[in-house]
Amino acid sequence: MSENNLITEFTQRIIEQSDYTNEDANYLGNQILGMIGESNYEHVTSDQDVSRLSTLTLLDNLVAIAADNGTLQNRKINADILGAQLMDYFVPRPSQVRQIFWQHYDHAPREATDYFFDLSKRSNYIKTREISQNLSYPVETEYGQLQITINLSKPEKDPKVIAAALKNKTQQQEQYPASQLAKENEGYWGRLDYAARSNHRVIPVTLGNENWYFQYSPYAYFNEHAIVLSENIRPMHVDQENLARLLEFVTKFPDYFIGSNADLPIVGGSILSHDHFQAGRYDLPMAKATLKESFQISDVNLSEAGVLNWPMTAIRLIDSDSDKLLAAAGKVMKTWEDYDDPSLFIQSHSQTGERHHTVTPIVRFRDHKYEVDLVLRDNNTSTEFPDGIFHPHSDVQHIKKENIGLIEVMGLAILPPRLKTELAEVEAYLLGNTDSVAPKHKIWADKLKYEETFNADNVTEVVEQSVGQIFKRVLEDAGVFKNSEAGQAGLKKFIVQLTTN
Question: Which residue ranges does the record assign to the Galactose-1-phosphate uridyl transferase N-terminal domain (predicted)?
């Protein structure tokens, strides 16, 4: 093959970054050739210096050749499937990845996660290019700094679709893999309607005497965004059993926080049908929140406990003894599960006994102590608020209507990709470059127009900061005890239940 041959260069990159050697060069080259197709073979030679191309650009070129050849159509695959198959050559076999991971772990947990994170990025399992397209910026509020992200890498799911998926157990049992999070995704080629996972690896971790698996999110929302999934495919459940697993995880990996989505529709995450957690080596805004009121839970003497200064109702428990924390958290969760306050539309169960209360739990290990944050959630609906009483209300759904899951609870907005175009149209309207704007944004845009004088230098900043303040309102809508006189009085009544019973 010639000097500027794309396959030759791609083969050399594999050899440089894996345990393949130069003796494997012909084998690798023929494997790649077979995968992209041999017709139009001359196109694998480039006019440019291929040694200067990034590995992902080489990959793009090879996939494009396969598309031109008709190989993708003939094999009934798409670009993602072929790309994952080609990048799989950079990744050791699962058994090797696990062996190397635990060898690093014996030296230091951070060394193990560094190895696995770097491998997941280099193999393009973590979609670094797509993630870099996301738009993000901070916004200051009375609760501290929040983070706004317009997600351009991964589509958000409609809350009603999420709830339907939880109920549709028959379909879940018949498909393979049984879940997007199932361990069987490791190495799965994918389908036209299912994500490619050829270059995917998972690390087995024992939590609560069960097999769980540690992996990274392909569309990370923050540094080292990880998913920890149950081997047993069962619905999400938030209880002391899983909270103990969260505490055990941060004992094993103290550089990471870990949390769980709530286990009910409307207030839960995007996948309620498979028990899993999310983790990462990152301080989301909530981690920096301070206590606005301290208290002690009866019968459990913790180092510190109290209510956070946060737009949602969040209780933080701190102690070096994980067993004491588990007991205290159990009391909070049980008390909230059965707690009613009709004056604030807080109802724990329906007349038929359906549960409406749960928590979003987050666990960290900082300064030699465990921290447990429990965010109180209620998924009731009403005639006035059919999408959820404690869900983003209709006047802010032009910015965010999706579920408020774990990551957003912690202060990182994952806003839908539609906003990139829509906010540009709002800016044009504010500058007078157009006379119309989408009806759903008009009330907000007219209010901004009345309050501010806009020019090309300030319009983007004002719109972005206004979006940030709307996200703050979104979180306040999701809060069960509002930061109002009535809401805080209701919170005090709830705290009495924790401190005296």
Answer: 20-235
Task: Provide the token pair at 397.
Answer: 């759904």
Range 437-464 burial, b when 16+ CB lie within 10 A, else e: beeebeebbeebbeeeebeeeebeebbb
Q: What residue has token string 């127009």?
A: 449
Domain ranges of the chain: 6-90, 136-413+481-500
Return the structure tokens found at 492. 């005090």
Whole-prediction pTM value? 0.92
Mean per-residue pLDDT pooled into runs of 10, the chain (501 residues)? 76 96 96 86 72 93 92 93 97 98 98 98 94 94 97 63 52 75 95 93 97 96 96 94 98 98 91 94 97 93 96 98 96 97 97 96 97 98 96 96 95 95 97 95 96 95 98 98 96 96 75
Q: Residues, the chain, total? A: 501
Question: What angle do the packed helices 240-252 and 322-337 form, to 10 degrees?
Answer: 150
Report DSSP letters for 356-425, one per residue. -EEEEEEEEEETTEEEEEEEEEE----SS-TT-TTS--GGGTTT--S---HHHHTTEEEE-THHHHHHHH
DSSP 158: P
